[in-house]
From TrEMBL:
A Pfam family it matches: PIN
Protein name as catalogued: PIN domain-containing protein
SUPFAM superfamilies: PIN domain-like
Taxonomic source organism: Enterovirga aerilata
Domain PIN: start-end pairs: 2-94
InterPro entries associated with the record: PIN-like_dom_sf (IPR029060), PIN_dom (IPR002716)
Length: 109
């Protein structure tokens, strides 16, 4: 199982030089429900619709999305070893929550 950060999905959609190998999309992918809003927000900011929007929605629908459960939000309110941005903290808290129940969760960021 791979926890996917929104930057990975965006790199794929924008065909950036630093994007994961295509094989990642055949893995079992999971992320916070935030990914949907982060990715669509970036598409709107770049005024991209049509095929890019459809591809984003399709990829997000193929993933397992974690809700921002009370345990996740509680962890996100706590300090991290280094200062991080709010959305990064929510993603890390989601990953930590998932790792308590799943043994082998990798992070793609």
């Amino acid at each position: 199982m791979i926890y996917l950060d929104s930057s990975v999905l965006l790199a794929h959609l924008f065909a950036e030089a630093r994007r994961p190998d295509g094989a990642i999309w055949t893995e079992r992918l999971v992320s916070s429900r935030l990914i949907k809003y982060e990715v669509l927000n970036r598409l709107h900011a770049r005024r991209l619709g049509g095929a890019a929007f459809d591809a984003a929605v399709s990829l997000v629908r193929s993933m397992y999305l974690l809700d921002l459960a009370p345990d996740v939000l509680a962890r996100a309110r706590e300090p991290f070893p280094r200062p991080i941005r709010t959305l990064d903290g929510l993603h890390l808290a989601s990953l930590m929550y998932l790792r308590r129940t799943e043994r082998d969760v990798q992070l793609a960021t």
